[in-house]
Amino acid sequence: RIPLYLDCDTGIDDALALAYLLASPSAELLGIGTVSGNVGAAVGARNTLDLLEMAGRADVPVAVGSHHPLAGAFHGGAPHVHGENGVGGVSLPPARASAVEGSAAELLVRLAHAHAGSLRVLAIGPLTNLAEALRLEPRLPDLVAEVTVMGGAALVPGNISPVAEANIGNDPEAARAVFAAPWRITLVPLDVTMENVLEERHRQELLAAPAPLPRALGEMLGHYFGFYEGQYGRPCSAMHDPLAAAVALGAIDLACAPVVAVEVDAGDGPGRGQTLCDLRGRYLGYPEQPGAHCRVVLGLSQDFAPHLMQVLLGARQLVA
Ligand code: BDR
Ligand code: CA
User: Fold this and answer.
1) Ligand nearest to the CA of 168
2) For the Inosine/uridine-preferring nucleoside hydrolase domain, which residue ranges apply (predicted)?
3) ipTM for the predicted complex
4) Minimum-distance ligand to the CA of 244?
5) SS3 per-residue string spanning 61-127
């Protein structure tokens, strides 16, 4: 099984990613850190603990991470997208478990040492905790097997500015440090996540599931669909974070994923938060870029929704 550290800002699509990981037989979820993004880091931890307990997995340690980005202050979250409580206003049964002592960055460093060479990191929120972990342990890139990041926009517009996607744009300084570090990164940007959606019929299937967690996900998606209806013209939503989870596990076939240089704009101009992916090799036939270490997922060769639904509904782990 794949040893995994998850960093998240739970969040409706984060909740789907978490459920997907818990239901995936190939994933061994060793620890979770939360970061401010969709909600504050402490609220995200609460949501995560509640979801874990619903799935009968209160054993997974959750550490509260950074409340503020590396520079400036947390902006207050995205209630219009994820609801005031981050999970679309759905009341989850409160978990008995609490977050563990220590920061998310400390948890990540500890797990990286304990599983040196094999730990995979999946980041589906702003990259503050990962940047702090790099400061705490500069050898982290040698210890971690691979980092998968949901974030950025390579050839499409951003979603919080003309060029910035939320996870990158909410802490560009952290993202810049994470992309500059010499580890293998797989970026799962809006280019591919916006193309892979769940539809109302999928939501109805979740609502009809016997287990409480898939049903709660179906309820949350009501809120998420409401937000995305403005973009797609029908009730459905992008599956940003679950798609990144599937890519991190190697569970989905990729059609287009060039390895290129990626830099994050952390300046104060209109490009702040942009992921500058050097795709000239791919589109203009330029020579390979020495030192490029970021695989940018631009297309899949299979439909993601059926895979996601099969895992979420087929899972024994979620049938409490
Ligand atoms: C990303 O931002 C958050 O709102 C989502 O959870 C996802 O991780 C999409 O831009
Ligand atoms: Ca997220």
Assistant:
1) 1
2) 5-302
3) 0.99
4) 1
5) CEEECCCCCCCCCCCCCCHHHHCCCCCCCCCCCCCCCCCCCCCHHHHHHHHHHHCCCCEEEEECCCC
